[in-house]
Design goal:
The complex is a heterodimer of chains A (323) and B (241). Chain A has 323 residues and is mainly α. Chain A has helices at 5-20, 24-49, 58-75, 79-100, 106-126, 128-131, 153-176, 178-188, 190-195, 200-226, 231-234, 237-250, 257-276, 286-301, 305-322, and strands at 137-138, 228-229. Chain A has a two-stranded antiparallel sheet with strand order 1-2. With 241 residues, chain B is an alpha/beta fold. Chain B has helices at 40-47, 70-75, 93-101, 108-121, 137-149, 167-182, 194-200, 218-223, 225-232, 234-240; strands at 2-11, 14-24, 29-33, 55-60, 63-64, 78-80, 155-159, 186-190, 203-208, 211-216. In chain B, α3 (93-101) packs across α4 (108-121), α3 (93-101) runs parallel beside α5 and α4 packs across α5 (137-149). The chains are: A mainly alpha (323), B alpha/beta (241). Chain A binds chain B through residues 176-178, 181-182, 184-185, 188-189, 191-200, and chain B through 48-50, 69-71, 74-75, 79-82, 86-91, 95, 98-100, 102-103, 106-108, 111, 147-148, 150-151.
């Protein structure tokens, strides 16, 4: 099994699945798996490759989601325009947060990013004249490609697949390019990186800005897909944690990690929700408990994540076979 | 050519380096010795751009670089190693060195080639694919030097790269430094191992409580009364005699 096998199985499988799957629930799960995988991949650009473990990436996701909701409702504009504007605003936000938190490390950086996303939550939920406040904004359904309105979930599978492949490509670039190697140096030891001629502060800000723009694009497409933007969801810490957890469970700093994590977590969540939704009471949230347990197991026993762990098993197996 | 012009660095009320001036001509090996806490590493941090001096100037090839950040000083051809080694632990030895080479060679393939050349020069070939964190301390020190060399410096600052090495490793490190010097590289070396210092340095600067108390040839330093009192001790003089 070569190292190309995993992406071929995951993305090839996603491309072929709609040909055989007709079930709406399963197609919806696939759309969400690809979307959350893509958003986690966007997080990985800063959190994994550059070592900037943000816990506030919902800020950028929310910017992308609000961008299309507001441009559609106020200006009757296209989501494609919103995609570009959202990404531009998120880049600017990423530059600001990256610049302000440049000297913060580890948990302090994480806390600063949480604070940033909560500031945006307060703005979005209180500034009624601009955002419609805490009740949220419905995204109007307007059929067509220019307005990104599709009744068929199959179309959405391919849109999210394109998004996922784009973000996968960005990650692959970071594994092979000068920029990627230099970011790895910054992540491993910032002092040593600076001594070797790497402008570490500038590269960290760049990584956060690119990550922010990609996350915003995910937010825009998500809003078009679900059709409603709730500030308490899109700017939530839960969402930020989801991006980080998918990536950590799948394999931080690996291009396939976020997608493997998303396959596991998203399918678990959707199936548990479906199973427990008939029941009354608090069982709807049980996936959170399973989520937490999984995280503990992964961090304790396979800190390199599933992709890294399988990679090691494979190499060990090959060595064994040769010997 | 590096010139320090009356450099002072304070941390709060503590003056770590006071009014130190020194020069390093192109291709020269200058040694810096002194007891622990004398300000040797602080001086390196000032020269390499990790600290800005509170007073005085650092001049590299005629340009005042006192306020430049570390990465720009490296770009101007001055690179340093760290006393407490700082390998990129999860990356392979080859990738460690290649990240240094990428500063001069933007193409990854060219940088990788350069990394292999430097790794061979530093005799790390057998460990090229190993993660840097798996290396024992002696090899980590050598990796520290290899990584800095890959940035193609004209002046290299070595902070105790010989301490903690066994006799064989020490001999190899001295041979490597001599070979680099023969190719025209200038070096400033902080070291506690006086035997190595006496063999390598053309000129030795002695720091004590942040001040320069002596400067001269290795022989004159070994005989300097203040240096013997402050640092070397009577045994050194007797053993040397």
């Amino acid at each position: 099994m070569s190292r190309h096998a995993l992406p071929i199985v995951v993305f090839g499988g996603s491309a072929l699945a709609p040909l055989v799957i007709r079930d709406g629930f399963l197609l919806d799960s696939l759309v969400l798996i690809l979307l959350w995988g893509a958003a986690s991949g966007a997080w990985n650009v800063a959190g994994g490759y550059a070592g900037q473990t943000s816990l506030g990436h919902s800020a950028f996701f929310g910017i992308g989601a609000y961008s299309t909701a507001l441009i559609a409702t106020r200006l009757n504009g296209s989501p494609w325009v919103a995609l570009v504007i959202g990404a531009a605003v998120a880049t600017l936000a990423g530059l600001i947060i990256g610049y302000l938190s440049n000297r913060l490390k580890g948990p302090y950086f994480g806390l600063a990013t949480i604070a940033f996303s909560q500031v945006l939550l307060i703005v979005a939920s209180r500034w009624r004249a601009f955002t419609a406040g805490s009740e949220g904004v419905p995204v109007p359904f307007r059929p067509g490609l220019w307005t990104l309105g599709f009744a068929s979930k199959v179309t959405w599978v391919y849109i999210m697949l394109a998004l996922a492949l784009g973000i996968f490509a960005v990650q692959i670039y970071l594994e092979r390019s000068r920029l990627g190697y230099r970011l790895a140096g910054v992540r491993e030891d910032e002092d040593a990186a600076q001594a070797l001629g790497i402008p570490s502060r500038r590269l960290k800000v760049l990584a956060i800005a690119v990550s922010a723009a990609l996350t915003s694009a995910c937010g825009t497409l998500w809003a078009q897909y679900v059709g409603f933007v709730d500030p308490f969801y899109v700017f939530s810490v839960d969402l930020s944690v989801r991006f980080a957890l998918n990536t950590i469970i799948g394999g931080i700093g690996t291009a396939m990690g976020p997608f493997v994590g998303s396959i596991l977590i998203t399918s678990l969540e959707t199936s548990l929700r479906a199973t427990f939704s008939d029941m009354r009471g608090g069982l709807v949230g049980i996936y959170l408990i399973i989520y937490g347990c999984l995280l503990i197991i992964v961090v304790r026993f396979i800190p390199q994540g599933l992709v890294g762990w399988f990679g090691q098993r494979l190499r060990a197996g090959r060595r064994h076979a040769r010997a | 050519m590096l010139e320090l012009d009356a450099v002072t660095k304070r941390f709060g009320g503590l003056t770590a380096v006071r009014d130190v001036s020194l020069r390093a001509a192109p291709g020269e090996i200058v040694g810096i010795i002194g007891p622990n806490g004398a300000g040797k590493t602080t001086l390196f941090n000032v020269i390499s751009g990790f600290y800005a001096p509170d007073e005085g100037r650092v001049v590299l090839d005629g340009h005042d670089v006192s306020r430049l950040p570390a990465h720009q000083i490296c770009a101007r051809g001055l690179c340093r190693t760290f006393q407490i080694v700082k390998p990129f632990g999860n990356l392979s030895v080859e990738d460690n060195v290649m990240i240094g080479a990428l500063t001069r060679l933007p193409a990854v393939s060219a940088a990788r080639e350069e990394a292999r050349r430097v790794i061979a020069l530093c005799r790390l070939e057998a460990f090229a694919a190993s993660p840097a964190r798996s290396l024992p301390i002696g090899l980590r020190k050598r990796l520290e030097v290899a990584r800095a060399l890959a940035t193609r410096p004209r002046l290299l600052l070595l902070d105790e790269v010989m301490s903690g090495l066994n006799a064989t490793e020490l001999g190899e490190m001295i041979a490597l430094i001599r070979a680099l010097h023969a190719e025209g590289l200038g070096l400033i070396i902080i070291e506690h191992i006086m035997a190595a210092m006496m063999r390598l340095a053309q000129r030795i600067v002695v720091l004590h409580h942040g001040e320069k108390i002596a400067e001269g040839t290795p022989q004159s330093i070994a005989e300097d009364r203040r240096v013997v009192d402050a640092y070397l001790g009577e045994e050194f003089v007797l053993a040397d005699a």
